[in-house]
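Provenance

Sequences were taken from public entries as deposited. Structures were produced by running a predictor on each sequence independently, with no templates supplied. The record for LuxR family transcriptional regulator from Tardibacter chloracetimidivorans is shown for reference.
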Amino acid sequence: MLVDSHCHLNYKGLVEDQQGVLDRAREAGVTAMLNISTREREWGEVIAVADREPDVWASVGIHPHEADAHADMDTARLVDAADHPRVVAIGETGLDYYYDHSDRVRQQMSFRAHIAAARETGLPLIVHTRDAEEDTALILAEEMRKGAFTGVIHCFTASQDFAHKALELSLFISISGIVTFKNARDLQDTASRLPGERLLIETDAPFLAPVPKRGKPCEPAFVTHTARFLAELRGEGVEALCQSTAENFYRLFGKAQPPEPIG
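Predicted structure for LuxR family transcriptional regulator:
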């Protein structure tokens, strides 16, 4: 059993052959995919795929790049949008200071609104952070003191120190195909040390195709390559790692249901 905990099935590069993408994922042994939204206009399409495909689940959220374009987005709208049986998460949200496509204060306000929605709905938060470790950690800690919530740092590329802070808050950490890149030594070292009970795997498809698929649009099926690399890195059997990360997925995203009993 293998799960892709973060993909964008409605993005260019996948949507043109979405059924083929899903078929190839299933043939590769992927039993569940979490289809992520980044803009309000995507919510209906993302949920529609999850309604149609029993092994696909959905999130609702606003990416930090889109914070300026969604200046009126508030917790109430997120909570309302999440009131659907196939929506299992809030996000992705967070902070991105690398591109600064949106004002940083606006990103922070949006991030906090998403956290409040996660707290109110009980759904896990999907966190994006790039070049914003200090503020991301600060906001997560401040908001956790206001009331507990669950979540995952998706496509983790941050420092070991940030990983430690996230784990102290009982958050999960998701590893993408970046871990297979030759220049990802620091990430590989961090990934090798992460506690297995807090580990997820993702593709972030259609981005970040792992070795040996670099240069191609990434697909959920490619999560198998990341799983093999990560298992070897951690000195684990690949089947055991796939099973444990699938169990973690269903534990975190409690509204999602496995295709069959795990264990």
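The chain has nine helices and eight strands.
The beta strands are 2-7, 30-35, 56-60, 87-96, 125-130, 151-153, 172-175, 199-201.
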